[in-house]
Design brief:
This protein is an alpha/beta fold. The chain contains eight helices and ten strands. GO terms for molecular function: precorrin-4 C11-methyltransferase activity.
Length: 262
């Protein structure tokens, strides 16, 4: 079944991707090209994408609006039988606050659908040319954040997640590097030698990458002046680029047959 169709009188939540306007999906781009109303998250959606909207399309930046004001625009558009796109950065399902919008649309009796997007973690990994899961090193990724104005539930405190090891991808947290490092070390698996990469505005023209270890990354991030809009990757996988891959994957192992190779 296809997902995420643009329909008159409904809202389509679209993932804009991490920044590079070519990192939106084909389907998301087509939706923008046919939209009558677009409400976009101004802080991290590339304005170049808005050039794709047709002549006469009503375009709103949601950055200065509160939830009710966003909903008023979405609902008014749908009631006027327009094609309404709600454009979110990265993938809308992560830190996108879409559930509360969908709930309000349910109450209003308005339909909606979602088109996924490339999340910041994958843009950061691509920019580094780094696989996030390696045999014998890590087969698990944890996507999380430190508490800001939004709290993080107790069982998901970074110190507890860090006790699982693996690859940790942190959103919304680069402004708290000292706490982040302390929590990661407190988990008891990562050490001062554990590699860390920080990617500021992955896939944008002003992208910046800082790499180090838990011992020095906080200082390096401070020196680079990065205080926001960065994704932090933590874990032993990051050593593969300098130290090599410890174990080759089974997928392409000549001695390993599977459904597509005898
Ligand atoms: N839905 C988005 C995340 C929104 S929360 C997604 O899937 O990517 C905003 C946070 O995402 C930022 O604080 C930053 O941590 C991260 N982020 C978003 N775009 C980014 C980019 N291009 N480069 C690095 N981090 C980014």
């Amino acid at each position: 079944m296809a997902i995420g169709e643009l329909k008159a009188g409904e809202v389509l939540f679209v993932g804009a991707g991490p920044g590079d306007p070519e990192l939106i999906t084909v389907k998301g781009l087509r939706a923008l090209q046919q939209a009558d109303v677009v409400v976009y998250a101004g802080s991290l959606v590339n304005p170049a994408l808005l050039d794709e909207c047709p002549q006469g399309c009503e375009v709103h930046d949601s950055a200065p609006l509160n939830l009710d004001q966003v909903l008023d625009i979405l609902i008014a558009g749908c009631r006027a039988n327009k094609k309404v796109v709600r454009l979110h950065t990265g993938d809308p399902a992560l830190y996108g606050a879409i559930q509360e919008q969908m709930e309000a649309l349910d109450v209003a009796g308005i339909g909606y659908a979602v088109i996924p997007g490339v999340t910041a973690t994958f843009a950061a990994a691509a920019s580094l040319k780094q696989e996030l899961t390696l045999p014998g090193v890590s087969q698990t990724m944890t996507l999380t954040r430190l508490a800001g104005r939004t709290p993080v539930p107790e069982p998901e405190q970074l110190q507890r997640l860090a006790a699982n090891g693996g690859t940790i991808c942190l959103y919304l947290s680069v402004g708290m590097m000292d706490k982040l490092v302390a929590d990661l070390l407190a988990g008891g698996i990562f050490t001062e030698q554990t590699p860390v990469a920080v990617v500021y505005r992955a896939s944008w023209p002003d992208e910046k990458t800082v790499e180090g270890t838990l011992a020095d990354i906080a200082e390096k991030v401070a020196d680079a002046g990065i205080t926001r809009q960065a994704l932090i990757l933590v874990g032993e996988v990051l050593n593969a680029r300098s130290k090599g891959v410890p174990e080759k994957s089974k997928l392409y192992d000549p001695g390993f047959a599977h459904g597509y190779r005898k």
